[in-house]
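Provenance and format

Records in this collection were gathered into a single text stream. Each protein contributes a sequence line and a token line. The two records reproduced below are adjacent in the stream.
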Amino acid sequence: MSSAVRGARWTPWLYLAPALLLLAGLLVYPVYQLGLISFLEYTQAQVSGGEPTTFQGLGNYQELFSDSQFWQVLLATVLFAAACVTATLLVGCALAVLLTRVRAVPRLALMLAALGAWATPAITGSTVWVFLFDPDFGPVNKVLGLGDHSWTYGRYSAFTLVLLEVVWCSFPFVMVTVYAGLRAIPSEVLEAAALDGASHWRTWRSVTAPILRPILVVVTIQSVIWDFKVFTQIYVMTGGGGIAGQNLVLNVYAYQKAFASSEYSLGSAIGVVMLVLLLGVTLVYLRLMRREGREL
């Protein structure tokens, strides 16, 4: 192999080197520290220097996996994320289809409203939703005639309230992405389906959805990752996890272990478990993308 060919092979990596070094500092090193702490005994005593740091091996993970609350929180996180992803996809896809059927002015108004929800910081949106459903001053209870009903008192009503806020701030991404995919579908394909007598639902299921499959896979996997690691909405709207921790999810659970209980090693172990689970989802995403690439 000539030196010119070898130089050409390394040229792209030279251009990528600054970005790779930056990513290594911002991502690789924190992940390394997270994994390292999860194998140590690292509490407030070690942080303050009162006791030496000791290596625990898999001891923190054994303690974590033997804790029944961890499995309850994990199950709640999976179910909550699944509900959020499903609702987000349904709302986003429905509004994307609606955008293709309305005139320019309503379409622009809907797009601006959705982008406004998308651009709202999570803590701001959560605070507004808490006020809307406040038992004393919230307008929702007054309109529905629910009196002083507290939405955050019950476990399922609190999860439902958080779900609505998560969907509200997440559906614009799905809507805009799917709408762009719909606009890219040749009109001749949809006209042929209409001439064959296909209903709107049959056209979506048999024609539109298969064409949009790569886009739907992307928005689904990204929604899974985002909703699985929800923190701000749960923490703000349920007061740190609800009454007696009934609304805990893994991110809030890790925060409580690490900072409220000063068990930094256990909090790091929960973070590693979340990282492994999300890496698994990402690998599934990459595999599906490769498969879609071969089909296309």
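Adjacent record:
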Amino acid sequence: MGEHGLGGRLADLAAAERAALVREIDASGAFAVDPRWREAFATVPRHLFVPYYYVSGAGGYERRWCESADPRGRERWLRGAYEDAPLATRLRDGVLVSSSSQPSLMALMLAELRVGDGARVLEIGAGTGYNAALLSYRLGDANVTTIDLDPEITESARRHLADAGYRPTVVTGDGARGVPERAPFDRIVATCTLTSIPSPWLAQCPPGALVLAPLATGLIALTVRDAAHAEGRFLRTPAFFVPLRGADRPEPEPVPFAGVPHRARENDLFRFLVALTRGVLDPQEAYALWEREGMPGRERYGVTVGDGHAWAWLDAPEGPYAWPLPGPSDPAPVRT
């Protein structure tokens, strides 16, 4: 048997496909901030973390499986495992609940963590375990903790990680609560979309720690000042992830875009602003602001956490535009 249990031809194909994926990620510029992640992606075998996945088609989802009786099916599975694309890995009643993220986006997020040797990282959303394996390769098992709400997901992540030779700490629990028994963390990275910044995360970080998380179709990078305060800006890149699941986190209602021009409805940057200001600005108000401010990119927005609440802002925390983020605390001022 070849690499990680594959037969000779498939083992060679896996090595070639992984090398091609690393070249594609490199060409995207995702490694630019921290090129040391290139070695992790070149070494950790993604196919071990996606023994099966689902591909959507006209008739629903097609399941691709490493143990397909058809050799061509196994080859399709393996080639798909190394595409620079997200892979649906777990469905419940036809709804996606877990996936393996797009590798180039994972690479960008890991590079933007700007970790040093020995940094302690908490990952929110264990998924398949692939991201935890990349972190473990770079930082060592002892410095990596990953958490997920679903015991089936954490159990399969543990199995995938062990098959690949990695043993970070895998915890079953509500990611919004963090993992206090493993704190402090120098970095917290979420691979699921948030609606607000959970306060336990900041309390589990020392000053100067970084929290990187998907929020409103963007990626917010927050620098922690202390257990109750953090601030930072969004990265330029868009990001779409499965929502953080847990108690009292209902799915958001669809946004009514009546009265908004079609060109804005289909614009990614406008939809980002609508998501960021959900419940505060209606789409018509968001459109007026978006036009007035020259269709601002994500990097012009930021988030501040402090004094018992969190708010998003455009250009500057104390500038003319600010909107509270949802959460259990008292609302922040609205400036529009």
